[in-house]
Q: What sequence folds into this?
């Protein structure tokens, strides 16, 4: 009897790539069509309470723009030249009917552009739900925590209005548990990449995360488990690359070629802010007690720092990046910010000051989701990698 | 044909009516008070125009310093360009808000205020986070430089077009548990809610008169320009004077002046005197350009175009739908004020408001001045334009400038577009006459 052929990382990456390039979201459409009453709820970067959609029996669907494959025709007519790309391509996805199966959209409070997009969605797609997720910038439990809990409660009501079914606390706990598992697996994946970046290249890690945006979390958990187990067993050639942390890709997505170009230029990306929603909470969200309170508490006290989030303590400002460099034994930071991104570009000088203070080298460039010319980026990243090798620790 | 004439000599002094002169005196006096703070011992709070809690700050004897207003003043005095470039030299991106960069550049060059005197470092940064994301980053940047207490006061966004009890409750609790105790600590003054009530009473009086002034533009011809002139009118109430006797006096004076203009059948005062015949009545969405303010205004009044309503004059508070500060519910009232500032309203609310202005003020159409710096205003404006045009049947137009970065004011382009817009209005009128 022949042995069943083993799944390889290449097989998994191929599946992820197919999902990534499918801008009609076939997998999500099929999931919805498989059972009457199912709902699909879109969400934009950087964070959304996916657990609520899951507990409502729905599929949370990451809408992360159109990338470099989508020709934006209608979307450009809604924005001035000085506005970033992601809202244009998101509108393009909507206007072109690619999101016609999506029952509602969640817009997290990441910046003024996405905030205003939530209102545009209400005007442009009045028959679809649009919910702005206002996030707390006060981190006291009885202030920001209570406010965020009420936001979550309102979001539950909004979802219940779509399904006609109540969301129970038990359903929420079960959903939190399955997303806890997802976050654990992603932390494992990140640990693997940090330890052996040659065995889990960032272009593959990125695709794995993106796959989790368009398929059920249970399927994604299996995919992650398979990838991590398989990648651990393989031995790919080790290169004399520099270890870098990437900062700035928390909203508008980089073209896949940009990540590949940085790697090809001689950098191992050992930490990043890709698709932060997949590992927003640093550890498991508690399961006992009030599930909404637990989600709110995790947001306040155990979640990632990122430019759109207020840092109340000046002494801690930017240290998350220093910690990331230290923990992942990185040798420098590449700031890759989206053009016209207010949160990212206003944050950058503050982060650079902190890095300077800690003698951590960095470079900076901007990109857009449809950037096509990678040569300058490759040259810049390559020079940075070389300079680290030549000068750091001298 | 568009002809841009460049002034060879210094332009003649602008003609101002008495209220404008009075306003200027008030603003100058405030800058002098700020500059003298290190000598007088007064403590200074920096905060923002939208969500400006001036009455509360006064309860702690704090003097209000508004960095956006400093940037505006520097723009009007043509100093902001060098400040913006200074900030860019320091590593700030060319893509981001020029108010922030003007402020950072001014700080880097010695913090010399618009009155030529050094502005004091703030004792507290009250980060009233209302309708503009950039505010948060701006004060994180300033906090590093000044090393003073920074208080975040979050206003939830009116995403569903309504104020909910949870929103008010969150804001009142922040005031009680966080904002007020910190202001007490910084100032050394104990909070007295009756003092706040007194200030709020005064605010409401001035707000009544401000609304009467702005709504006077419903008269034909309009006695005011509610955009260019409106910027003078909102100065005291959006700045450091709301809740004071000076504001009550100013707005009473202004109202009387405007009522007299109505009686005399006069149009607005422009920098070159009374405006001639009113030919076009416009609603304007978006902030103005300040670096070429007079040149920009001239493009309107030369054509007989008067702005009868604008969204920008609601950015520091929306009073024309009935809201007034309420001394009986002092903290709730401050919360409601913040929630209602223009940019904290969702896009559908903004569209409704502009549609309402076009209809109620019998405007010929909507003009959008889209500002490169300000995503809070600008993102979505092209949809706003389409919607208002569709709903009112009146033509709309779109121009692009910037707040305080002179590099983004292209006079020829703006003038050309305005001229085309006025022609469009004429054609529309001709069409309507033909159809009648």
A:
């Amino acid at each position: 009897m022949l042995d069943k052929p083993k799944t390889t990382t290449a097989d998994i990456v191929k599946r992820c790539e197919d999902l990534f390039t499918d801008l009609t979201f076939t997998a999500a459409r099929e999931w919805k069509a498989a059972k009457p009453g199912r709902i699909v709820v879109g969400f934009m970067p950087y964070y959304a309470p996916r657990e609520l959609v899951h507990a409502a029996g729905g599929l949370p669907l990451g809408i992360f723009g159109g990338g470099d494959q989508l020709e934006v025709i209608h979307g450009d007519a809604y924005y001035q030249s000085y506005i970033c790309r992601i809202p244009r391509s998101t509108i393009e996805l909507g206007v072109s009917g690619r999101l016609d199966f999506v029952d509602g959209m969640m817009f997290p409070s990441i910046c003024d552009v996405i905030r205003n997009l939530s209102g545009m969605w209400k005007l442009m797609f009045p028959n679809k739900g649009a919910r702005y997720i206002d996030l707390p910038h006060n981190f006291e439990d009885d202030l920001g925590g209570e406010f965020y809990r009420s936001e979550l409660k309102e979001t539950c009501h909004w979802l219940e209005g779509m399904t006609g079914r109540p969301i129970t606390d038990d359903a929420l706990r079960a959903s939190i548990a399955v997303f806890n598992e997802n976050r654990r697996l992603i932390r494992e994946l990140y640990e693997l990449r940090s330890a052996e970046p040659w065995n889990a290249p960032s272009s593959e890690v990125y695709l794995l995360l993106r796959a989790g945006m368009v398929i059920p979390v249970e399927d994604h958990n299996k995919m992650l488990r398979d990838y991590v187990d398989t990648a651990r067993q393989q031995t790919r050639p080790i290169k004399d690359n520099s270890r870098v942390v990437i900062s700035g890709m928390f909203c508008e997505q980089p073209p896949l070629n940009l990540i590949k170009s940085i790697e090809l230029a001689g950098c191992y990306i050992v930490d990043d802010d890709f698709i932060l929603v997949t590992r927003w909470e640093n550890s498991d969200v508690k399961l006992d007690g009030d599930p909404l309170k637990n989600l709110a508490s995790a947001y306040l006290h155990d979640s990632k720092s990122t430019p759109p989030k207020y840092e109340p303590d000046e002494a801690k400002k930017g240290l998350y990046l220093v910690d990331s460099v230290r923990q992942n034994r990185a040798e420098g930071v590449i700031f890759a910010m989206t053009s016209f991104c207010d949160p990212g570009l206003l944050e950058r000088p503050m982060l650079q000051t902190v890095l300077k203070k800690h003698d951590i080298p960095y470079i900076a460039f901007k990109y857009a989701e449809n950037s096509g010319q990678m040569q300058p980026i490759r040259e810049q990243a390559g020079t940075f990698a070389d300079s680290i090798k030549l000068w750091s620790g001298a | 044909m568009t002809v841009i004439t460049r002034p060879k000599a210094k332009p003649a002094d602008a003609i101002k009516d008495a209220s404008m002169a009075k306003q200027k005196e008030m603003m100058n006096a405030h800058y002098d008070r700020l500059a003298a703070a290190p000598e007088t011992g007064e403590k200074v709070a920096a905060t923002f125009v939208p969500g400006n809690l001036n009455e509360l700050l006064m309860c702690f004897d704090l003097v209000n310093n508004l960095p956006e207003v400093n940037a505006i003043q520097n723009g009007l005095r043509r100093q902001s360009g060098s400040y913006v470039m200074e900030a860019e030299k320091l590593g700030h991106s060319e893509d981001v808000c020029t108010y922030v960069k003007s402020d950072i550049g001014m700080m880097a060059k010695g913090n010399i205020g618009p009155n030529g005197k050094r502005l004091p470092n703030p004792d507290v940064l009250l980060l009233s986070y209302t309708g503009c994301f950039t505010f948060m980053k701006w004060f994180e940047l300033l906090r590093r430089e000044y090393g003073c207490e920074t208080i975040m006061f979050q206003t939830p966004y009116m995403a569903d077009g309504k104020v909910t009890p949870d929103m008010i409750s969150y804001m009142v609790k922040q005031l009680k548990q966080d904002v007020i105790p910190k202001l007490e600590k910084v100032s050394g003054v104990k909070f007295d809610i009756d003092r706040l009530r007194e200030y709020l009473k005064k605010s409401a009086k001035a707000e009544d008169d401000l609304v009467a002034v702005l709504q006077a533009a419903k008269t034909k011809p309009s006695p005011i320009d509610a955009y260019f002139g409106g910027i003078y009118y909102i100065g005291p109430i959006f700045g450091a004077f709301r809740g004071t006797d000076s504001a009550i006096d100013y707005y009473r004076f202004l109202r009387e002046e405007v009522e007299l203009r109505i009686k005399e059948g006069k149009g607005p005062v422009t920098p070159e005197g009374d405006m001639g015949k009113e030919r076009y009545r416009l609603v304007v969405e978006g902030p103005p350009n300040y670096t070429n303010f007079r040149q920009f205004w001239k493009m309107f009044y030369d054509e007989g175009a008067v702005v009868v309503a604008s969204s920008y004059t609601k950015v520091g508070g929306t009073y024309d739908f009935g809201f007034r500060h309420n001394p009986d519910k002092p903290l709730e009232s401050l919360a409601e004020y913040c929630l209602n500032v223009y940019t904290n309203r969702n896009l559908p609310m903004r569209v409704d408001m502009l549609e309402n202005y076009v209809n109620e003020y019998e405007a010929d159409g909507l003009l959008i001045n889209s500002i490169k710096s300000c995503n809070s205003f600008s993102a979505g404006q092209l949809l706003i334009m389409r919607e208002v045009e569709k709903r009112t049947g009146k033509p709309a137009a779109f121009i692009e400038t910037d707040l305080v970065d002179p590099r983004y004011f292209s006079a020829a382009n703006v003038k050309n577009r305005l001229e085309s817009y006025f022609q469009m209005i004429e054609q529309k009128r001709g069409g309507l006459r033909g159809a009648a």
Observations:
- The beta strands of chain A are 39-43, 58-62, 104-108, 129-133, 242-247, 267-271, 332-338, 362-367.
